[in-house]
């Protein structure tokens, strides 16, 4: 079942990329119409998709996936972008991209399992410590709305949001248990803190009035042909969205590193809330790029992940996920008008994405350091800090966010090598 | 006076600060939404567009590419890859007006572009 879902996902996503219906990489989306309308060669498109995607798959998608043993969607869909754009046009391209995409999807699942199994067989097993990478995210993800408010309305308002989130977190911890009949309902402190932060963030954003002097650009009428193209493709997009929801509900994949780490710790509610917040962050980006390019994303505005996390039955998740994507596409015009009316929401979306990256960068770096230090006290910190700072000045740096997990995995492998040559004695693992 | 707009989409304040620090008196920097910023270039109200996002091309340049066309836009850095100084200079010489990069690389690429366009 797992393999079937992932194979279908890989195949369909590759075909959609091949046909220019949907690509996952936001950076690739604006370039696809340049190719479809004949201003760019196939070769240039393929080269661009590879350049944009490869670094993220290797330097971000895979390391984050290994650390939690759930596949980060970027690993799959950035790969299928590349497969789709490299495959030839026409029927042949459809078959090739479909077949290669399916193999790629299954390969990822098998590969990830293989890597984890190999790590287990090493003389010094560092997988338990690798799990430490996610501790800071799980504890601190609820701070991001405060950062969003701070970006948009100043540090003072951000601080107020943080304090309110903190108070709610404390109160929930002590008084968040209710007895309903015989069942005890425990509210989750982090989840509640996040919820409050998000509500404040949205209240701030919605109060912002459009600038009357700003030149209005009516995207929808400017690009009406492209909007029509997306709507025509809605059946395929619906199936794609459904598959992603089903895959998420089976815990094969997750949409972002935060919810991925929360899911790996069994914190489903918090993961769903985070995925929801991230979805809100992606509405402006996905809606405006989709309207302007006529190309959608296989995961749409990423709400399909929320569906997958909340609905544990894969078949039901598939149906609801398909409905959600259909709704997103049908509402594109409406969303564009809404964003014009509430510019605060558009800025809010941009800031959510900035804030989540910032928090992930710090949390994954600290997590990586903690994990590395647990594997090899002292030495682990030495190596991760060294890697992070050197990466900063490198000409081909890996994504900041990934340095923590990559560093921790590197230290794990290193202590095994040191062990073999007799330069390391494993600490007693409790 | 060189007029610069910061459009898409992440870390706009930081990008604007870096530009101001380098350009000083010689530039005006305005932070706009990506659509407004791209329109400013199209209507010649501004000379250059800067934008950052995690891919260096999506949020950063999507609107610029859609409204101005690919020939005016260049991605100068992407995850895991910063283009070399000579490549970036070549893009500017080829008449590119809109530049996209990842926020992580802002400190490296903005000075290269600024040095060239201030000359």
Would you kindly provide a brief summary of this structure?
Chain A has 430 residues and is mostly helical. Chain A is 75% helix and 3% strand.
Features:
heterodimer; A: 430 residues; two-stranded parallel sheet; 4 strands; 75% helix; globular; B: alpha/beta; Ribose 5-phosphate Isomerase B, Chain: A; two-stranded antiparallel ribbon
Number of helical elements of chain A: 20
Helicity of chain A, as a percent range: over 70%
SSE ordering of chain A: HHHEHHHHHEEHHHHEHHHHHHHH
Q: Structurally, how many domains make up the residues of chain B?
A: 1
**Would you identify the CATH architecture of chain B?**
3-Layer(aba) Sandwich
List the total number of helices of chain B: 5
CATH fold assignment of chain B: Ribose 5-phosphate Isomerase B, Chain: A
Mean pLDDT of chain A: 88
User: Rounded to an integer, what's the Rg of chain A over CA atoms?
Assistant: 22 Å
User: What about the largest sheet of chain A?
Assistant: 2 strands, parallel
Strand residues, percent of chain A: under 5%
């Amino acid at each position: 079942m797992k393999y079937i879902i992932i194979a279908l996902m890989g195949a369909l996503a590759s075909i959609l990329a091949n046909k220019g219906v949907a690509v996952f990489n936001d950076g690739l989306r604006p370039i696809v119409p340049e190719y479809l309308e004949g201003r760019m060669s196939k070769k240039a498109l393929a080269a661009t998709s590879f350049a944009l995607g490869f670094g993220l798959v290797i330097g971000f998608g895979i390391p984050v996936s290994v650390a939690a043993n759930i596949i980060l969607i970027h690993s799959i869909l950035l790969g299928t972008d590349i497969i789709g754009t490299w495959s030839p046009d026409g029927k042949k391209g459809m078959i090739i991209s479909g077949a290669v995409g399916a193999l790629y999807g299954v390969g990822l699942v098998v590969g990830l399992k293989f890597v984890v199994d190999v790590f287990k067989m090493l003389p010094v097993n560092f997988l338990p410590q690798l799990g430490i990478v996610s501790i800071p995210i799980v504890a601190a993800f609820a701070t991001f709305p405060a950062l969003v408010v701070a970006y948009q309305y100043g540090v003072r308002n951000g601080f107020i949001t943080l304090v309110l989130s903190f108070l709610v977190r404390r109160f929930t911890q002590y008084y968040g248990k209710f007895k309903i009949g015989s069942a005890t309902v425990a509210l989750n402190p982090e989840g509640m803190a996040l919820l409050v932060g998000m509500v404040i963030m949205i209240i701030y954003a919605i109060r912002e009035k459009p600038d009357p002097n700003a030149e209005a650009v009516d995207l929808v009428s400017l690009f009406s042909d492209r909007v029509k193209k997306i709507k025509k493709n809605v059946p395929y997009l619906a199936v794609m969205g459904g598959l992603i929801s089903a895959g998420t509900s089976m815990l094969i994949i997750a949409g972002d590193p935060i919810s991925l780490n929360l899911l790996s710790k069994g914190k489903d509610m918090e993961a769903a809330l985070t995925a929801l917040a991230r979805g809100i962050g992606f509405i402006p980006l996905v809606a405006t790029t989709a309207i302007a390019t006529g190309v959608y994303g296989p995961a749409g505005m990423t709400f399909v992940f929320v569906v997958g996390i909340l609905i544990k039955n894969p078949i039901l998740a598939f149906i609801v996920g398909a409905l959600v994507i259909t709704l997103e596409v049908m509402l594109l015009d409406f969303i564009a008008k809404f964003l014009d009316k509430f510019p605060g929401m558009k800025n809010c979306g941009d800031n959510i994405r900035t804030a989540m990256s910032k928090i992930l960068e710090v949390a994954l770096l600290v997590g990586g350091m903690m994990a590395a230090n647990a594997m090899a006290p002292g030495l682990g910190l030495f190596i991760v800090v060294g890697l992070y700072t050197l990466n900063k000045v490198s000409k081909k740096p890996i994504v900041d966010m990934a340095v923590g997990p990559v560093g921790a995995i590197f230290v794990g492998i290193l202590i095994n090598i040191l062990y073999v040559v007799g330069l390391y004695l494993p600490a007693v693992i409790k | 006076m060189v007029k610069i707009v910061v459009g898409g989409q992440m870390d706009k304040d930081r990008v604007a600060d870096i530009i101001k620090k380098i350009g000083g008196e010689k530039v005006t920097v305005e932070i706009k939404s990506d659509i407004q910023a791209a329109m400013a270039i199209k209507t010649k109200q501004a000379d250059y567009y800067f934008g950052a996002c995690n891919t260096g091309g999506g949020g950063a340049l999507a609107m610029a590419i859609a409204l101005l066309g690919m020939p005016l836009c260049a991605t100068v850095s992407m995850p895991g890859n910063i283009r070399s100084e000579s490549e970036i200079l070549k893009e500017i010489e080829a008449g590119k007006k809109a530049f996209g990069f990842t926020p992580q690389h802002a400190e490296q690429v903005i000075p290269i572009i600024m040095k060239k366009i201030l000359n």
